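Database export, one record per block. Field names are fixed; values are copied verbatim from the stored entry.
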Amino acid sequence: MIAQADKLVAVFTPKTQVYVHFHADTIEDADALARSEKIGPLLVDQVKLVTGATNVKMTPAIHVGGAGEVVDMYETPTRIRDQVLLRDPYDVAPFSSRLSRGCDMDHTVEFQPGKRGQTRPDNLGPVSRRFHRAKTHGGWQLRQPRAGVFIWETPAGQCFQVDNTGTHRLARRE
């Protein structure tokens, strides 16, 4: 019979990153609901089973509402990227079900060198490389009237709104 170790041995303990969303007040409630990216809904007690034999890195919650931080550079800093990914867990292209963590971070309004304040959550959205290229080179147009709401127009004039409830067809623009 193999005895179980009381402590994890650091050199042999895997380091994993699991994104789990839950309210801080429920961490002691085993029956409270949490949501894990890529896994789905779990009870808080089940999160312990998923992370029990690994080194866990706790990251503070990021508030996803409001204007957020602004930087004057093309590259998106991790803290802003994380805020956008939490706001938009899926690719913001019409009808996409691709998880946003593997997507490009796209400036809704094209980045212009020297112009201040362009890299901010309400001017960013996660899109797959395919849709990023369609927007940049294929005649697709995109606007973001408010943070997390994306209006796409195809070269043929079809319009779609993508938001936290999914993709919705809009009236054609003439």
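Remark 1: The chain has a mean pLDDT of 84.
Remark 2: The chain has two domains: 1-61, 78-170.
End of record.
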